Amino acid sequence: MAKYVFKPEKSFIARVYWHGPARTERELDSSNWQRVYVTYDQALLGNRGWLHIGHVLPNPELEHYSSNGVGAVQFWFGCYQGGEDYRFEIRTADLEDGHPYWNHSNCRLDISRNGYLGVYGVSEKPGHDFEANGTMTWRLPGLEPTRLSVDTPQGGLDLLTPDSKCITRLDEDDFPYLSTRAGQRSWLGLKLIKMGVAHP
Questions:
Q1: Are 87 and 130 in contact (CB under 8 A)?
Q2: What is the number of other CB atoms lying within 10 angstroms of the CB of residue 16?
Q3: What pLDDT sits at residue 35?
Q4: Which DSSP string do the residues of the chain spell out, in sequence order?
Q5: Is the four-CA dihedral 63, 65, 70, 76 of positive or negative sign?
Q6: 8 Å CB contact between 34 and 189
Q7: What is the pLDDT of residues 41-74, one digit of tens each?
């Protein structure tokens, strides 16, 4: 098995969306995609750093609404290549509006003990040897980094754990989490902001 090597020229920053339940082709109409957000107010939902889908708090007409403790986050996809296979270490980059309360920059996307997706602080520098360190990476089958374009949204992507467990939408207590537990099958959408980014 080929060793995975960090490829900064294939790493990128993107806005992340969720869509479903059906897909027809790789390039999909992105007008009905729902943005992925991260909570950062401890008092808001009892914890910080959870990922959720769409507008679940007041002011749904606002794109970012970070004044409510929830932010529209840009994510860095650090690309590692092993032969023809890609793995991505996904970290938070910044909020759309750079809100002063935001303190989750450069946090890694990982899975809680209960199977929910959240962002967690890291000590490793971007581009570290994830195999040696045993850190979390993700698979996006069918995504070819060299074919990404700022002008072309990428949809219909499965977000998979290294052992091929598919991430789903799990509505629990009227809150739309991303989870490894049983949930609604749906897909990841990406809108590229910048290609060739070596760190968040």
A1: yes
A2: 24
A3: 87
A4: -PPPEE-GGG-EEEEEEEE-S---SSS--GGG-EEEEEE--HHHHSSSSBEEES--SS-TT-S--GGGTEEEEEEEEEEEEETTEEEEEEEEEEETT--TT---TTPEEEE-TTSBEEEE---SPTT--HHHHT---BB-TT--GGG-BTTB-EEEE--B-TT-PBPEEEEETTEEEEESSS-B--EEEEEEEEES-S--
A5: positive
A6: no
A7: 554 444 567 888 875 554 445 444 444 556 678 8
User: Residue 20 corresponds to which tokens in the numbers above?
Assistant: 């479903």
Tell the residue number behind the tokens 């914890």, with chain if given: 47
Mean pLDDT of 14-33: 73
46 Cβ neighbours under 8 A, 6+ residues apart: none
- Encoding tokens for residue 165? 């467990």
Summarize pLDDT for 89-116 with one digit per residue, the tens.
999 987 665 555 556 678 899 999 989 9
State yes or no: pLDDT of 136 exceeds 90: yes
Please state, in angstroms and rounded to a whole number, the distance separating the CA atoms of residues 79 and 198. Answer: 9
* Cα separation, 145 vs 79, whole angstroms: 8
Six token digits for residue 155? 């949809």
Predicted local confidence at residue 194, as pLDDT: 94
pTM: 0.87
Q: How far apart are the first and last CA of the chain?
A: 28
What is the rounded distance in angstroms from the CA atom of residue 184 to the CA atom of residue 179?
Answer: 10
